[in-house]
Amino acid sequence: MTDKLKHTIIKYLNKEYSGLVRVETYRQPDYIFFMKNNEVIFEYNKKNKSVYISYDKIWSFLESFFGLEYEETQSLTKEWVERQFKSDVTTTDYVGFVDADEVERQFKSDVTTTNRNLYHSQRRWRNIIN
């Protein structure tokens, strides 16, 4: 990826996702959810410093629109999260640890808790790998 393309993508991400709403719940104390229009855009695990990016909203767009390979998307989104949200990203995996749909339903209904038995939501999340 060229520096010019990287700059263009970072600029796009900053424009589209700089005003995310930060959501924390007492039942998921290790997580911070960053939301836009009542949808989880990414989740941050404070305990192990993993970040899980929405595949539908960001990851697949970067791959298809900009033609990025997996590793390029990984590296770029990791750098973007660290810079934009002042978060240290150190550990990684492919899927998030909570069901984004459940968090979104709870957020929309103004409930600040989530189900303790949340499950992996593999269809919506891709992780940023170090």
Quick structural summary:
This protein has 130 residues and is α+β, with helices and mostly antiparallel strands.
Let me know the largest β-sheet: 5 strands, antiparallel
Q: Percent of residues in helical segments?
A: 25-40%
Determine Rg (CA atoms, Å): 14 Å
- Please state the overall shape, judged from the principal axes of the Cα atoms: globular
Task: Note the main attributes of this structure.
130 residues; alpha+beta; globular
Structural summary, described in words:
Mean pLDDT is 75; it is low at 110-125. Helix 1 crosses helix 3 (70-84). This protein is globular. Strand 2 (31-36) and strand 3 form a beta hairpin. It has 4 helices and 5 strands. It has 130 residues and is α+β, with helices and mostly antiparallel strands. It has one domain. It has a 5-stranded antiparallel sheet, with helices on both faces.
Present the secondary structure layout.
Blueprint: H1 3-17, E1 21-23, E2 31-36, E3 39-45, E4 50-54, H2 55-66, H3 70-84, H4 100-108, E5 125-127
Antiparallel strand pairs: 1-2, 2-3, 3-4, 4-5
Helix pairs in contact: 1-3
